[in-house]
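lol forgot to send this yesterday, sorry. struct tokens for the thing we talked abt
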């Protein structure tokens, strides 16, 4: 019983961590990374379908400041370019034969501060999700103890394990946040 509660909490915390990391990776840091454009929605094939860039093309980094997007179907190149423009990401795609090049402009100091603030907000959202998962798991343990399906000792041991998992996950999140901030402050 307690193992089910702990495993469920662990899986949910892991998922919350991954969601937060994906959210963080979408914040521009002045460095070229496919995450900047891969989830942008594109109205393809005359607007009959909405696809993400990652479903329509291969996204690679040429160097630290350049992204290259090579569409699977060359006829969609203009739609991808238009979709990236319309996404208001501050990126300027340029069609170069059968690929799109995007040069990542350097961030201004003001923009860096805004992105740091945004990353801290996203990290706090991740911490809140993880604490909520801990709260729900603890509640399930208390209910199980009240129903006498687990002993008090087992409840206390499980609570300690869940708290340790929570602390570990939040520490990982904080470390990733510090890494992102360092990346944003790099000129």
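and heres what i got for the seq, position by position
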């Amino acid at each position: 019983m307690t193992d089910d509660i702990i495993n469920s909490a662990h899986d949910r915390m892991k998922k919350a961590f991954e969601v937060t990391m994906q959210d963080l990776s979408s914040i521009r840091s002045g460095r070229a990374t496919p995450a900047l454009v891969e989830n942008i929605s594109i109205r393809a094939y005359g607007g009959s379908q909405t696809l993400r860039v990652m479903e329509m093309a291969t996204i690679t980094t040429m160097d630290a400041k350049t992204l290259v997007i090579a569409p699977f179907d060359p006829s969609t190149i203009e739609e991808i370019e238009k979709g990236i423009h319309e996404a208001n990401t501050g990126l300027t795609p340029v069609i170069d034969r059968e690929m799109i090049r995007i040069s990542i402009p350097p961030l201004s100091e003001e923009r860096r501060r805004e992105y740091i603030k945004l990353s801290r907000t996203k990290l706090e959202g991740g911490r809140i999700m993880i604490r909520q998962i801990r709260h729900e798991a603890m509640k399930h343990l208390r209910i199980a103890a009240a129903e006498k399906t687990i002993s008090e000792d087992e409840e206390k041991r499980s609570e300690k394990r869940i708290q340790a998992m929570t602390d570990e996950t939040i520490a990982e999140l904080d470390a990733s946040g510090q890494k992102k901030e360092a990346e944003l402050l790099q000129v």
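The mean pLDDT is 89. anyway ping me if u want another try
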